[in-house]
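Cross-check.
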Amino acid sequence: MAKSDVHSPSPFPTIEQCSSIGRENDTVVADMDGTLLRGNSSFPYFALVAFEVGGILRLLFLLLASPVAGLLYYFISESAGIRVLIFSTFVGMKVSDIESVARAVLPKFYAGDLHPETWRVFSSCGKRCVLSANPRIMVEAFLKDYLGADMVLGTEIGSYRGRATGLVLSPGILVGRNKAQALRKAFADASPPDVGIGDRRTDFPFMKLCKEGYVVPSKPEVEAVSHDKLPKPIVFHDGRLVQKPGPLMALLTILWIPAGFVLACLRIAAGALLPMPLVYYAFWALGVRVYIKGTPPPPAKKSTGQTGVLFVCSHRTLLDPIFLSTALGRPIPAVTYSLSRLSEIISPIKTVRLSRDRLTDANMIKKLLQEGDLVICPEGTTCREPFLLRFSALFAELTDDLVPVAMSNRMSMFHGTTARGWKGMDPFYFFMNPSPAYEVTFLNKLPPELTCGAGKSSHEVANYIQRTIAATLSYECTTFTRKDKYRALAGNDGTVVEKPRLAANKVMGC
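Predicted model, tokenized:
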């Protein structure tokens, strides 16, 4: 479409004039970019797929192709521009990898751009349909799993032997008349939709098929819908990029990665080779911020037969025990559920793998506590969002010397965790951030009357510590487990490949 056609005088009223009361039996049809989402550009979402599946080289290829897509979009047609983005992003990719990113990565970013007025109307209707020029494979998981869409009509991409060809199947890119034709076909045996919502002239054909039509005016200052208003909270998400990569951010990411990797190696070397009392200062000199709150207990005195303290931490990255040791100025051994061989080799502290056999793990932890202090993350896996997963109760049965530690961190470019990728790169990605930060908050040692030694059950103790840490961090407690996370993000439980659905209502108040 020509540039002048994007926003023309509309024969339809604006979305603010649409009532959302009494719509329970109505059917709504909404466009996606610029309508259901605030932003008109789909480049950031293509960039996310390009980077998460194809890496930095695929992202560079997409970035180089984007000016061509832009010229075609403005001077030839919207369809031609989108075809270039689809080809440069998808050609050669495994379809299963695209589906994985659409399920585990994109929802977090889509949810952060939800238009409040469109969502007000869309969520009030009983039946919901979304039309999108973007590939259906990209948007369907988010729209159905998180927004409750009943039908998603999007551009279909071709594939051959499990890999995307980068070409578009008939009827082509879903814009203009193609949207209207797709909608007419979908509702051929039903009454016309009650409400149609779009944002540009090319949406008018499908909007005219609806009983009512409303236009979403372009207002960049509109704030997105807050996550707590979504029908289903986004507790888990994957992917390495913290920010939505527009063209400038994508360029900065590409330019930063080589220098950032060298910097990460220096930071990891400092943590691994220097004495632990010096690591705190070395991290600060290298741009890694470590903030310490609370008063930790002194080291256990072996001469008096005193057993070690068990530090019970919330779990943000695999580096939690290292930053705990940095805050204490002494190495504290950590028990881990799963750790890559590379992470074990470069770790500056002793790591001991749990077998997931209850009796074996209990005996091992007791033995380690007899040797000194120990750190454990009873969630069993990391969580990026402000939630705490369910605490495994085994630790509470093994000692009454429990010190809760609230761990939080800050990353500006890359996430230091992954469920789908190679975990050996987790510490490198964390330290590749320009100025990553960790906050270690030592809470009061658990009072004797709240321990198993005083008659409390291990589950009561674990739940109490979970609530205490959550209150400190202003997080929310959940009953989600490690298996729930991997089922949501990787389609398996961490060990066996399977694809059950994640329950939608496991979030509970603290």
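Residues 248-489 form one domain. Residues 43-75 form the longest helix (33 residues). Passed to J.P. for a second look.
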